[in-house]
Write a structure and sequence with these properties.
The complex is a heterodimer of chains A (405) and B (461). Chain A is of the alpha+beta class and 405 residues long. Chain A has two domains: 116 residues, 2-Layer Sandwich (Phosphorylase Kinase, domain 1), CATH 3.30.200.20; 180 residues, Orthogonal Bundle (Transferase(Phosphotransferase), domain 1). Helix content of chain A is 30%, strand content 13%. Chain A contains 13 helices and eleven strands. In chain A, β2 and β3 form a beta hairpin. Chain A is globular and about 65 Å long. Chain B has 461 residues and is α+β, with helices and mostly antiparallel strands. Among the domains of chain B are: 127 residues, Jelly Rolls (Sandwich); 113 residues, Jelly Rolls, CATH 2.60.120. Chain B is built from 14 helices and 17 strands. A four-stranded antiparallel beta sheet of chain B has the order 2-9-4-7. A four-stranded antiparallel beta sheet of chain B has the order 3-8-5-6, with no helix packed on it. A four-stranded antiparallel beta sheet of chain B has the order 10-17-12-15. The N and C termini of chain B lie far apart (86 Å). The chains are: A alpha+beta (405), B alpha+beta (461). The interface between A and B is large, with 77 and 88 residues.
């Protein structure tokens, strides 16, 4: 597994080699949990790193899918940092929580006054919880996938990742618009142009993930899609994303309402699950709730498929093509792949090239007071103070699994 | 009587705009001005409300509803009250984006819809739609929705992701894993078969998988009454079938078993011989939706998730690898990439025929291609009274049907019960396009690039 990890160890931000050669980095051998008695050289390296972080967006211009897939020198993001620490960031507010992770809005603690207003989203995962919930493999997949997809216009950018003795950190770009989920529930449903716009950006994401990176995302839903300052989408939470390439995978994961039939039956699944979920998503955009639902989750899986599409006459053909039980007939998975989806009549008004280049604003542009405005995020309970310690045998057994983080 | 200050502010702003723009069509200008103001105010309101209305609400919690295999749910009460409101709203609802002028009319009427703060819907403004606001709204076009069947009790909270243990077939092959086998009498076997027959999770199993799953069920004696087999709120790992005895089902509205005499919650039913419970645990790690307590001495059969899913995975994995291996042997398909081969393997359909079945018939139009997965078959040609060939596992036939509509050149008749994997021309083309295109990759005269290329594009290069 470790051999498959790409681009994980270079700490030299601007020289991001796909070879993953440790010798590139002057600090590669620094233990990640080095304490505050850093050498002056270490301090300098941290300061340099923080300055680069502060200005990562200065170099940002939309890369083409091929440029991202090459993972070459165009990118200044997605590396594993050996010098960053949690106290390089000031935690401002919780943006979201999961069973073993919490995402914070953070401000860069920089010695440069002009860089102190730089904000990020920092996802913090406790190693103990990751291990206890058997999510080690998923967390490794998440970090590695985010590293290779960094730079896509509609995917959250992992600027860097790092770790200390008991936690893993992913430094992400902050997306101030909040979740599409919140807007959808509030609006009840989206009108057709809005649904088409968002759906089109998702198609571009899936096309890239599947066809350039061989990655299945596996948890598409409105909760995992954020709106950025210009109203464009950002896909976040790659906890279940996995590089599958031409091999099927078997671990059941996703969200009950969005699970493809082949995932439920455990017959092996691949990127086609995202096209199923995409059909459910378009349905939920247009109708306000997903087509399969019951208080009892087992009943969701038993519901008759194909689904009834009388509520979505405009997109009926698209959704029925996507939500086809037989993967050998499912739109997106059949000949043409994403191109077949893009050329569907429901997308006839979409200019795909302009879409990728973000030439127009999104249908909902969030009102923001500034780059660190958190009004579009919900309030979350504070983190519980008690925390299981990570160390001893557990650490001995598991730390090597986190080595490349 | 003085004018409302909000009104005065709007008029002052309009006056400024008029002075600045000096419009020729004053009425149109004013209309545009107010429309713009309305949109922006609604958008502002929407966002400010979103910002302020989620203090400590259920939004941030993982509140996936129910997970209840018994039909009644602890959250049914609040969901019902929500259903009523949603239905009301349905009446005057037009499809709207939050920035459209038709959006949030009802919210404007009641800027603080906090009355249902304790319900699952308390965080959402749409719940505040009321008959009062619908009267205040301009009549909108009737919705095309079918109100009768529109599922309106949907839980609007964030949905929690679920996952099962990481299963990796590559390592399981190395482990040489075989499912556990627990001996059962023929009677027990039949009872178990009947007990799971109606269960969705077992309905897709083939005979072999079914035999493995039934074999893996392990007897679990429950020596006395009062034993809690599963506890509401606990992590679920096992599915149970009742062999004999009886169990009561309790649900505590809090969502989990609590201490004290009423900790079980209300009894909602019971389950006896042939019944089963805990099936969601076969899918993923989810909290138990109820507590199950024995009401007498009983016997259960138990099956855990990892065993169940591994049986399914291993047989699917082996079948796919077998199909891919077979496909590699077909010259017509030799230029498929591994990715394409895996797609075709995924699309192959298994069919079973009894001995003596004519699988393809000489002279018929060929539509499908076959791989013999198990059993044997013989090939006959008209005018020859002996079989011209014999097929065994891994042999394939009818592949020319993928290429053209030529009639079958021979008949293939099974000489034992056979299992074949088959794919039609349509299915093949749907996945990969015409097979001719794939064959052409191997043909140097069509590949282009060298001196005697027939590709006009290659000449310019």
């Amino acid at each position: 597994m470790a051999a498959a990890v790409r681009n994980t160890v270079s700490s030299v931000l601007h020289h991001h080699h796909s070879s993953g050669n440790r010798e590139d980095s002057p600090h590669a051998n620094q233990p990640p949990d080095s304490n505050s008695t850093d050498s002056p050289a270490m301090e300098r390296a941290r300061d340099d790193e923080k300055q680069r972080l502060a200005h990562w967006e200065d170099h940002k211009s939309p890369l083409s899918p091929d440029q991202i897939a090459d993972g070459g020198d165009e990118r200044v993001v997605g590396h594993s940092s050996r010098v960053l620490r949690q106290d390089d960031f000031e935690l401002i507010k919780t943006l979201g929580t999961g069973t073993f992770a919490r995402v914070w809005l953070v401000r860069l603690n920089s010695s440069q006054p002009e860089d102190q207003n730089k904000v990020f989203a920092l996802k913090i995962l406790r190693k103990v919880d990751v291990i206890r919930l058997k999510q080690v493999e998923h967390v490794r997949n998440e970090r590695n996938v985010l590293a290779v997809v960094a730079g896509h216009p509609f995917i959250t950018t992992m600027v860097a990742s790092f770790q200390d003795h008991d936690s893993l950190y992913m430094l992400l770009d902050y997306c101030p618009g909040g979740e599409v989920f919140s807007y959808l529930r509030r609006a009840r449903r989206f009108n057709e142009p809005t649904s088409q716009f968002y759906a089109a950006e998702i198609v571009l994401i899936l096309e890239f993930l599947h066809e350039k990176e061989g990655v299945a995302y596996r948890d598409l839903k409105p909760e995992n899609i954020l709106i950025d300052a210009e109203g464009h989408l950002k896909l976040v939470d790659f906890g279940f994303a996995k590089k599958v390439e031409n091999r099927e995978t078997y671990t059941l994961c996703g969200t009950p309402e969005y699970l493809a039939p082949e995932v439920i039956r455990n017959t092996g699944h691949g990127t086609a699950v995202d096209w199923w979920a995409f059909g459910i998503l378009v349905y939920e955009f247009l109708v306000g709730q997903p087509p399969f639902w019951d208080q009892n989750p087992m009943k969701i899986y038993e519901q008759p498929r194909p689904l009834s599409l009388r509520h979505v006459p405009e997109a009926r053909d698209l959704i029925s093509g996507l939500c086809t039980v037989d993967t050998s007939k499912r739109l997106g998975n059949i000949k043409g792949g994403a191109t077949a989806v893009k050329s569907h009549a429901w997308f006839r008004d979409i200019d795909w090239d302009a879409m990728y280049k973000r030439k127009t604003h999104g249908p909902i542009v969030p009102h923001l007071r500034g780059p660190a405005d958190t009004r579009n995020f919900d309030e979350y309970e504070p983190e519980s103070a008690e925390r299981e310690a990570y160390g001893g045998e557990m650490r001995e057994k598991w730390d090597e699994y986190f080595r490349d983080f | 009587m003085s004018l409302p200050p909000d009104y005065s502010n709007e008029i002052t702003a309009l006056n400024r705009e008029i002075l600045k723009a000096k419009p020729s069509d004053v009425l149109q200008f004013c209309a545009n001005f107010f429309l713009r103001r309305l949109e922006s105010q609604r958008a502002e309101f929407l966002l400010s409300q979103q910002h302020s209305s989620h203090k400590g609400g259920g939004m941030a919690e993982s509140t996936f509803p129910g997970s209840n295999p018994f039909g009644t749910s602890p959250s049914a009460g609040s969901a019902n009250s929500g259903m009523h409101r949603v239905e009301e709203e349905e009446e005057n609802d037009t499809i709207a984006s939050p920035t459209q002028a038709t959006f949030a009319q009802s919210d404007m009427e009641k800027p603080a819809p906090q009355q249902q703060g304790d319900s699952t819907f308390g965080n959402f403004a749409f719940g505040s739609a009321s008959s009062k606001s619908s009267r205040a709204m301009p009549p909108s076009a009737p919705s095309a929705m079918d109100h009768q069947s529109f599922p309106s009790n949907y839980n609007m909270n964030r949905r929690t992701s679920v996952s099962a243990e990481s299963l990796n077939p590559a390592t399981s092959a190395n482990d040489n894993w075989t499912p556990p086998y627990h001996q059962k009498s023929a009677d027990q076997q039949n009872r178990l078969k009947a007990a799971v027959a109606g269960n969705f999770l077992f309905s897709h199993l083939d005979d072999e998988q079914s035999a493995q799953v039934l074999g893996a069920l392990q007897e679990k004696p429950i020596p006395t009454k009062g034993i809690k087999v599963i506890q509401q709120g606990d992590v679920g790992d096992y599915f149970y079938v009742v062999e004999n005895g009886n169990f009561d089902i309790y649900i505590n509205k809090s969502g989990k078993l609590e201490a004290g005499p009423d900790g079980l919650g209300a009894k909602v039913g019971s389950v006896g011989p042939g019944g089963s419970f805990g099936e969601l645990a076969l899918m993923y790690n989810a909290p138990r939706a109820a507590t199950i307590v024995s009401s007498e001495q009983s016997t259960l059969w138990a099956l855990d998730r990892v065993t169940f899913r591994r049986i399914l995975m291993d047989s699917a994995f082996q079948r796919r690898r077998m199909y891919e291996g077979f496909l590699e042997e077909v010259p017509l398909l030799s230029s498929l990439t591994p990715y394409e081969r895996s797609k075709i393997a995924d699309a192959l359909e298994t069919k079973k025929y009894p001995s003596g079945t004519t699988i393809i018939k000489e002279g018929d139009v060929g539509e499908s291609f076959y791989i013999l997965e198990s059993g044997s078959a013989e090939v006959y040609k008209r005018g020859v009274d002996k079989p011209v060939n014999r097929y065994k596992k891994g042999d394939y036939f009818g592949e020319l049907a993928l290429l053209n509509d030529a009639p079958r050149a021979a008949s293939v008749v099974s000489t034992s019960e056979v299992k074949v994997a088959t794919l039609g021309k349509n299915g093949f083309q749907r996945l990969l396009g015409p097979v001719e295109g794939i064959m052409r990759r191997n043909d140097p005269s069509k590949a282009g690039g060298d001196g005697d290329s027939v590709d006009p594009l290659a000449k310019g290069a």
